[in-house]
Amino acid sequence: MDEEKTLTTSEVADILNIQIKTVNEYCKEGKLEAFKRGNRNYITQASLDEYMKRTRRSLVSFRPNNIKNHKT
Fold first, then answer.
1. Residue 44 gets which letter from DSSP?
2. Is the pTM above the cut of 0.90?
């Protein structure tokens, strides 16, 4: 049986370029489907993909923090 990839709130925050606190709020509000193990939230890749589809967010629209705009 294939096991689905599970992401931490930190990983999701990095992917979406938002704070971990915001990811936890999204989980609590039901905006991002998650499950708890102990007191930590975990998000499946499928759940993140669905969230991104619903909100029309894509990885293309996010810039890594270390890339700066260059003037030509």
1. E
2. no
Q: Compute the Cα dihedral for 14, 62, 50, 28 and give only its sign.
A: positive
pLDDT in tens, 5-56: 999 999 999 999 999 999 999 999 999 999 999 999 999 999 999 999 988 7
State the Cα–Cα distance between residues 20 and 24, nearest whole angstrom.
6
Q: How far is residue 49's CA from residue 18's CA, in Å, rounded to a whole number?
A: 16
d(C-alpha 68, C-alpha 53), whole Å: 27
Per DSSP bridges, beta strands 35-37 and 40-44 are antiparallel
Query: Could you tell me the two tokens for 4?
Result: 């689905």
